[in-house]
Amino acid sequence: MDVNQTKQEHLLALKVMRLTKPTLFTNLPVTCEDRDLPGDLFGQLMREDPSTIKGAEALMLGEMLTLPQNFGNIFLGETFSSYISVHNDSNQVVKDILVKADLQTSSQRLNLSASNSAVADLKPECCIDDVIHHEVKEIGTHILVCAVSYTTHYGEKLYFRKFFKFQVLKPLDVKTKFYNAETDEVFLEAQIQNITTSPMFMEKVSLEPSMMYNVTELNLVSSGDDGESTFGKMSYLQPMDTRQYLYCLKPKPEYAEKAGVIKGVTVIGKLDIVWKTNLGERGRLQTSQLQRMAPGYGDIRLSLEIIPDTVNLEEPFDIICKITNCSERTMDLVLEMCNTRSIHWCGVSGRQLGKLSPGALLSLPLTLLSSVQGLQSISGLRLTDTFLKRTYEYDDIAQVCVVCPYTTNEC
């Protein structure tokens, strides 16, 4: 839409048109029953209409393409294309024609001209054509500024410009949730909603992790050698529909043992979303760096490295605990094992584990048994730092299924 009309008569005329793909022709079918007065007249007219689909004449969507009748909507991540034409409407030769196209956003001004050199001369009824492209990366008001400068046959230098304003809308609503596992794994749930008025084909939704993590996509169902998407082969997202994507991030081996480093990592990565609309128009959107709340491990962290899924009632079984010093000081640790109603520890309680430097870890094998069937919680471990006389208690460390080997009852 032109918002600035020039008052001076110029020798050159500037025309700007947005380049966009056509749409399928839409007609309004008029039908009636056979016993009505028109009879089969309306049906015959629709069958003879070249724009309708043969055999589906009552369908509003035709098989012909129509050119865009208005500027249309522009969404973030799409490519804005425009055709610029400067035509010599006069009967004299115009010299030194320079056409410049800038795009003004709320934060910057971009030069979109393909060439910044002037055209030597332009004869009557001739034109200069240019096509500009720009991937839209900001929402809000955009102004396309087209400026033309030239010199007349008599040496007079003239200049004019026109402004074309348009709005860039947000196509997707992206929400993220983080879940910190008992280990150093991080699970990311991304909720993506289509807030446009047309369906989208989701070509790719991937997570680009930060340098400290490796990512595993959990949106595939294993079927033979190839994994199939949980959303099916035709991954369409209808208007206002929402879809959830899940990813698992694990620390790289060189960072996994550095508890202090992983503890403070808040930057996880960014989402890369690619979609197609209408007749294959492609859009791409990358989020900013996603950040999570750093988990609070405290001064010392206790986690399980190995634990069986199922154990027998009143039979000892082994587990391996990992103790990590997350503080910035050396600790001298003592381990105490306290029995609960169902869990009984085997071994000496109150034994010295020795000194543990900052960021260091210790693998500790332990043996225990359960006197109660069912899903039991492993609890009752206590660590004491003799340097500062601080005690750390750990309950509900993990759960194990206890079965009786002489019956078929299982949890």
From TrEMBL:
Signal peptide: none annotated. GO terms for cellular component: TRAPPIII protein complex. Residues 10-168 form the Trafficking protein particle complex subunit 13 N-terminal domain. Pfam families: TRAPPC13_C (PF23643), TRAPPC13_M (PF23647), TRAPPC13_N (PF06159). It comes from the Eukaryota. Part of the multisubunit TRAPP (transport protein particle) complex. This is Trafficking protein particle complex subunit 13. It comes from Scomber scombrus (Atlantic mackerel). The lineage of its organism: Eukaryota, Metazoa, Chordata, Craniata, Vertebrata.
